[in-house]
Amino acid sequence: MTVSDSVLLPKLFSKDLVSLGQLLRNPLVPNTDTFRGGCALVDETDISSADPEENFEAIVSVGKNGWLDIGLTRLLGTKLGGRKTSMLSIKAKSLEYITLKDSVDVLRRISCSDDAKRWINDMVRYKTPCYLVVGIQTLCMAEFTRVVLKEGVAGGYITMPLEATAQIPVHINGNISAHHFGRSMGKTSGVFGIQVLRLDPRIVQVGEIGLKSDVSWKWSYERIKATQKVEEKQLDIALKGVAMDELIELMCEDAKDEDEDEDD
Length: 264
What we know:
Layout: E1 7-13, E2 23-24, E3 34-35, E4 47-49, E5 53-63, H1 73-76, E6 85-100, H2 103-110, H3 114-125, E7 131-149, E8 157-160, E9 188-205, E10 215-221, E11 231-240, H4 244-263
Antiparallel strand pairs: 1-9, 2-3, 2-7, 4-6, 5-6, 6-7, 7-8, 7-9, 9-11, 10-11
C-alpha cells in the first residue's frame, strides 16, 4: 500500500492530538475514539520527510465546522456547496510533510500489542470504521487573516482583522485571536493535514486462504445466546485507500455532530 492511495484530510489540529501510527475512528476528530499506543513504536527510521515548503501562503475556504477546503474544492465541488463558509489567508514560515515509509510494517508492529488488538476488535465488532495515520502536514509559525473578496474584481481580495466575536474554525483557536494590526495574535503551529489509510477487516475461518491481508489474528466469535459455544475464527486486516465518497461522509458526519452540539 503506497501513500498515494491515501487521502489528505485538511483540518488544523494541535500537534499533540495526532501522530504517525495513530489509530482513529474519525480522522477529523482525532481526540476521541483513538488508540495512540502504537505511536511510540514509530521512530525516525520509519519516517520519510519531504523538503519543507518555505514561506507557505494559501487562501482557504473554511466551513463553520472547521474543515479547510484547500485542495478539495475542485474534487468536492457541489457536493459540499451551499454550506456557509468563510475565507482565511494563511502565511506560515513553512509547511512540513512527513509520511510512513512502510505503513504495513508499522501496522504489523502495532498489532503485536494486546491493547491494540482489543481496540481494533471493538471497532470491528461494532462495524465502526478505523483508520491509520500515515502522513502529516504541519504548519510552522503561521498567521491568519480574514479574506474579503472584492466585488466586480476577478480574483481580487483584501485581508482584514479576525473579529473578536467571529468563530475561528480551527482546533487551536485558543492560540488565535483578533489583533488591531489585522493578524492573529502571535504565531501558531499545528497539524494542517492528516493522511490516512483505512483498516479493511474480514472475519474468516481459521486457516482459510482468502484475499491478501496485511495482519491476522484469532477472533473469538461469541453467539448471542450464552449457552452457545464460542467459535474461534480469524480476523484478517488489509490497509486500503480512502475513497472520496468516504471522505465526504466523514466531513458530513463531523458537521452533523457539531450542529447537534450547538443545539444542545
